[in-house]
Amino acid sequence: MDAYAITDIGRKRTLNQDYAYLSLSKVGILPNLFVVADGMGGHRGGGYASRLAVETILEEIRKGGEESPSQTLVNAIREANARVRQAASKDEMLAGMGTTVVAATCLEKALEVANVGDSRLYVVNEKEIRQITQDHSLVEEMVRFGGLSREQARRHPDRNIITRAVGAEDDLKVDCFFVPLQEGDKVLLCSDGLTSMLEDEEIRRILESGEDTETCAQALVEAANNHGGRDNIAVIIIEPFSDEVSR
Ligand code: CA
Description:
CATH class: Alpha Beta
Number of helices: 7
CATH topology: Phosphatase 2c, domain 1
Bound molecules: calcium ion
Shape: globular
Helix content: 25-40%
């Protein structure tokens, strides 16, 4: 597969607390690994939390046992949760920090995905853009339980409030998704700095522009910045080769 990862500070923030990690070679039992983390809390805390979470995830996966790929991702994220909480409890500058994590590995013709928070994973092709992960956010709950439209949610003043994060509670629930990949599918992992600035359809058009992953990733960042760039932006694009998908 071809893949590219990028983060950008955006136009308004003074720090970049987003973190994107990509490995096209084996990490522990996983054949490859993609992670986006969007840190929050305090001046130092956010960037510290996202970096610590990703580093812990890598370390845990590398030393992992015989679990399934999805269990490996879940265990690693839960350990990241424990480490972020521990670090926050020892340093008052870091108190209250947390991070989103969306992590994926591309297996034979399918993806395993694990998610906490409101960073997202999408599968995109020439016909549609599908959001695979569900945001753990207040506005997502308001949409799901009625009353708020998707469009209102995108502009809601409380859209940044997340209801689940790595570092928030001792017992962390991690969502898992198994996603078969078809020919023509591309995969996007991103932070809300992208999705709060761009409509899904705009994201799909850029990914389907026919350019390579690097050019598309940079075009997404540029588009988010052109729409205001109000937040840090993290983007990973994965383009499986034709023998890595079902026909
Ligand atoms: Ca963000």
